[in-house]
Amino acid sequence: MRLNKYISETGACSRREADKWIEAGRVSLNGRPATLGTQVADGDEVRIDGNLIGVKQHQVYIALNKPVGIICTTEAHIEDNIIDHVGYPERIFPVGRLDRDSEGLILLTNNGDIVNEILRSENNHEKEYVVTVDRPITDLSLRMLAAGVKIMGEVTKPSKVTRVNAQSFRIILTQGLNRQIRRMCSALGYKAQRLQRVRIMNIHLGNLRPGHWRHLTPAELAGFLD
Question: What distance separates the 2 farthest-apart alpha carbons in the chain?
Answer without folding.
Answer: 64
